[in-house]
Amino acid sequence: MAETTTRFEYLTGFWQSVAGRGRAWVGARRPAPLDVQGLIELARKLLGERGESSGAATAQVLLAGYGALGEAEKRVFLARLGDEFGPDLEALQQAARAFLDAPDSVSAGELAARAEPTRQELIRRLNHAPGGTFALVKMRETLLAALKEGEPLEALDRDFRHLFASWFNRGFLVLRRIEWTTPANILEKIIRYEAVHEITTWDELRRRLDPPDRRLYAFFHPALTDEPLIFVEVALTSAIPEAIGPLLTPERVSLAPETATTAVFYSISNAQGGLSGVSFGNFLIKQVVEDLRRELPRLQTFVTLSPVPGFARWLAQEKETSRFVNPEARRTLEAIEAGETPEGADRTLSTLAAAYFLHARTAAGRVIDPVARFHLGNGARLERINPRGDLSPAGKRQSLGVMVNYLYDLDHIEANHEAFANRGAVAASSAVRKLAAGFAAKA
Questions:
Q1: How confident is residue 50, by pLDDT bands cut at 50, 70 and 90?
Q2: In the listed set 167, 183, 217, which residue is the last one of a domain according to the structure?
Q3: Domain tally for the chain?
């Protein structure tokens, strides 16, 4: 890692020097603030430049100008990129006719090249600016927020996803263990980006990093040396846990790692919203498993303790009329929501959760829960449902306290993945299937 980092720091410094010379040449050392129209004109200028120094400098000015815009103006700029920087349609028509007249590999290649929107080349050139990669990741964050609100930016987002899939492929990613001695600026980001179990103090962070039975691993990219992309927190235990509280309590007794038999992935956080949809979480888990097996040969079980973020929302939709929620279950749910713990609550929640995973589906036929889709897509098996897994306010709000264990059985990961990817089949233990058996008969 040291050699890779040193090489990248050298290249970064070199490229910043090139960009600095370029700014001097193009008279852009202290650019005046640019409005959206000025940035669009600068984008066209960037696409026409041939010099590397002047191009890097123009890209840097454009990204700085974009960063200075308000949120509404940023969305206007992105909309104009989507509308005005598409493919050259006349050249595309000519290439299409040539391919139809003589369909061979050369004409097919020309057709593919002409079909590429100029937006993609613009994004590539913006990436040449010092800090350009991170700026583009943040730009896509704004784009995704606009998409969620219904703005028609799908074509531009396809361009970002296409390029990011190449720039952030597994071959470029570096796995690093985060420790208490890791630089503070990275530790601060771990606190900020933790998305599953909030870290509120430095002491709490230390409890997740410093004890010998705790691990935290993150993927980094050479262009974002101090920005974690995704990270996973691991507890080494002697058994599969059924609740998050005992794993995080300050009073717990640390376990000697060489005696551990189970590695528990209890929190996985995507640190960069702008990389949503760029898949590298599956690589993270699999590489961490490999590293842990080398370090601790006694480890036999690799399992998660995962939230069920869509469960409470699904139950709320099902309570009125549902083949899953009968009158008795409805009364139990109402009592739970009122803060009571009625008799049979655990059984009711477990049974409904099993139905949620195995039989409930979206309108498109997909498993509803996003965390389930992630782990099942990676080849894990739904192993156990824990009705009292997370009794924190957040846990009760999103899942009425339910958590689940996904088991990464190394001998069956590939088969489980293929079954889920090709048929939507959910790999589940016999205990979970037994819980949901009554619903299968009614399907």
A1: confident
A2: 167
A3: 3
Give all strands (DSSP E) within 83-213, no chain letters: 174-177
Q: For the chain, what is the mean pLDDT?
A: 90
Asked if residue 80 is part of any domain, the answer here is yes
Asked, for residue 6, whether it belongs to a domain, the answer is: no
Structure tokens at 371: 């965390």
State pLDDT tens for residues 70-90: 999 999 999 999 999 998 899
pLDDT at 440: 61
Quick one: residue 95, left, alpha or beta (phi over 0 = left, psi -120 to 50 = alpha)?
Answer: alpha
Question: Do 133 and 102 lie in a common domain?
Answer: yes
289 shares its domain with 236: yes
The predicted pLDDT at position 26 comes to 45
Residues 330 and 435 in one domain: yes
Q: Which residues share a beta bridge with 386?
A: 403
Is residue 231 included in any domain, yes or no? yes
245/209 Cα distance (integer angstroms): 17
**Whole-number percent of the chain with pLDDT over 90:** 79
Instruction: For residues 353 and 281, state if they share a domain.
Output: no
| DSSP tag of 171 | G
Q: Compute the distance between CA of residue 428 and CA of residue 406 in angstroms, rounded to an integer.
A: 9
User: Does residue 262 lie in a domain region?
Assistant: yes
| pLDDT over 60 at 11, yes or no | no
Whole-number Å distance between alpha carbons of 245 and 390: 7
Name the residue with tokens 């940023």.
Answer: 74
- Mapped onto helix, strand or coil, the DSSP state of residue 327 is helix
- CATH number, residue 291: 3.40.630.180
Note down the domain range covering 148.
14-167
In this structure, what CATH number is given to the domain that contains residue 65? 1.20.140.90
| Rounded CA Rg of the chain | 26
For the chain, the 3-state helix, strand and coil shares in percent, each to the nearest 5, are 55, 10, 35
Last residue of a domain, one of 111, 132, 167: 167
Q: What is the DSSP letter of 181?
A: T
* Strand 230-237 relative to strand 381-386, pairing: unpaired
Distance CA 133, CA 164 (A): 9
Could you give the CA distance from residue 300 to residue 366 in angstroms, rounded to a whole number?
Answer: 31
The alpha helices in 51-115, defined as continuous H runs, are: 52-67, 71-84, 89-101, 105-115
Confidence of residue 413 (pLDDT cuts 50, 70, 90): very high
d(CA 61, CA 345): 60
